[in-house]
Amino acid sequence: MPYDDLRKGRFNESSRAYFVTTVLAEREAAYFRDFHCARLAIAQMRNLHDAGAVDSLAWVVMSDHVHWLFRLGETHTLSEIMKAYKARAAHLVNGYLNRQGAVWQKAFYDHALREEEDVRAIARYIVANPLRAGLVENIGDYPHWDAIWL
């Protein structure tokens, strides 16, 4: 799907919950198999949460992509949040791996949740990714996820 097609219909509403997915530029690189790289990506989600730009509800970092469920704050658009997240995480990952170049695909997928959608069910779907991928048999054994309902 072309990048511009992903932006069609995108709107921003503070306090609305968004489910976003962003993927590594080279999926086969799987940078987040490295524990430290995954923690660098997680730290940037936490930084945006702590700054009040988003209210993180759930997330999981897989080897080649990130799923993140959050409520958008008052100060930034969804695109600004994702641009900041991807830029900061890429800078740290590239520094740690002593490499240059794109870390992320240009686009990201987003879904603005409707009122009738069950936020907790979507959070469960997100954090169950490692189970569905066969990486662990118990989600507690996977180190790169969190949800506010714990």
TrEMBL record:
GO terms for biological process: DNA transposition. GO terms for molecular function: sequence-specific DNA binding; transposase activity. InterPro entries: RAYT_transposase (IPR052715), Transposase_17 (IPR002686), Transposase_17_sf (IPR036515). It comes from the Bacteria. Residues 13-129 form the Transposase IS200-like domain. This is Transposase. It comes from Methylomicrobium album BG8.
